[in-house]
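ok here's Class I SAM-dependent methyltransferase, seq below lol
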Amino acid sequence: MSDEMKRHVQEVFSKNKQAYVDSKTHKKQSDLDEVIEWLKPDPSHKALDIATGGGHVAKALSSHCGTVFATDITKDMLQNTARHLTSQQNIEYVVADAEQLPFLDESFDLVTCRIAPHHFPSPHHFIKEVARVLKDNGRFLMIDNVAPEDDGLDEFYNRFEKKRDYSHVRALKISEWEQLFFNNRLSVKKHLTRKKAMPFPDWVCRTLDNEADQKAVEEVFKQAPAQAKKHFSIIEENGRVQSFTIDEYMVIVEKHSS
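and the structure came out like this:
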């Protein structure tokens, strides 16, 4: 099952590789500035950016760290990103599965992963691997979309994401992430949650080019229960969905083996 999911991810991201380099959501500068502010990278640090996509975080880190390894499961995506970041000499590109990282134990001072874990079939294996490759006292910063704690809203959120992008597996709740960190001796140092506004047309077109499929996703929003319309701030104008919000979680954890 998970191999099939990973093939879906590779298909979707190969097809849309340029869209992720250009995506406003993915290249938002204030987000990238915050990553640097929270991690405080310096030239002595070796960093790993997992599921780098368009390479925005890897690029931001490369101005501060000695070496950055940018990994992605999709070779086409990585190749395209490497072509865009030719001026960054200290980034190494490695095709790698987030749940089976090809690195030795305790290799990195810093690890990052942004807007990607909802594509991973096994978050449990992913966090276990992050903890394994981090040095003791190393820090991991993750940003991802999260599902609300309410089960009904969780189901609605993951349903519309999956309908828009079949490589979406599941956005976890914050409580689930916290449990995974705890299980792997990663202690939360700082976290925040925020509402992220999504322009519907840009969002739906990033993965779907068939108009009927786009309309089907729009219908899910239009027929949403009142509680969901409120929580996700779904805005319609002239019978068309214009925008909505999702919950984003940013967290930094530190590894302590003992």
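fwiw The chain has one domain: 2-147+167-197+247-255. kinda neat tbh
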